[in-house]
Sequence to fold (122 residues):
Amino acid sequence: MLLVVCPKAEYNRYGYANVAQKGTARMGDPRQTALIMTAASVPRAVLIMLGGTIADRYGPLRVTLASQTLRAALMLAFAVAVVTTSTPHLWLLIGVALLFGALDAAHMPAAAALPPSLLQPH
Fold:
């Protein structure tokens, strides 16, 4: 989905981050990139403890699958918005980054809790 938005994107652990950097680099202002990265990091940092609590209560597999599904839906909605507006506006990138950071706060602790549950006890 992200390749439609930015075909020359490089992907890392946070695949959307490099898309945001490449997209705002064309706008010409590195402060916009910093703003988008901050918009993704703040909700992740603030909500990560709550995400761990949710993973403990509802199970890490359920939370991981739900957060992955919601993140995919968010990226699909973002791709549709970019295609229909023809340019990614800064407010749209910031909104996606905020929501992705909040979903990432639930995903990260749940994904970290999965490996021990997959292994059998000695």
In short: DSSP finds five helices and no strands in the chain. Residues 1-12 have pLDDT under 50 and may be disordered. The two ends are 42 Å apart (CA to CA).
